[in-house]
Amino acid sequence: MEAMATPTEQRAVTLSDVGLDTQNKATIGRVLATGKIEQAKEDSDGRMSATIRIQPDQLVFEPSVLVLPHGGQVELELINDDKNTHCALLPSNGDSQFIWLVNHSRGTATLSLDGPGYYWFSSPTGNDEGRGLTGAIVVMGDTPPEARLDRPTQPRP
Ligand SMILES: [Cu+2]
Known about the structure:
By secondary structure, this protein is mainly beta.
């Protein structure tokens, strides 16, 4: 006869409580988007740049959330510190960009991201994105008036 499960309430847990903070504990990789959150560097002319690394043995991007203070072009450097080959599928206006990253290699890409909002990036090869190698680029800023939803003001609770 199957053992009865111990009843538990819904409760707050930490990543380490449930073993989602390290590779090959509860899952193959660390739970997605649990890496650092960093803001891109910005030069006096408004050009933005950032470096994103693939950590060894964790299947996680560092930072896994990259914040852009405004829309525009960002120069991304990607460094694969892992022993496995990865790649990066990156969002950009018009068309995504794809970079192969053999182990211990680096690649660069210039992305154009106009609209404020969330954009995801990942390493789709070998289902790494399904195992946690996914990150987000967040473009700050207000939705341009022409892109705002034309709807009546919503009643507040
Ligand atoms: Cu990969």
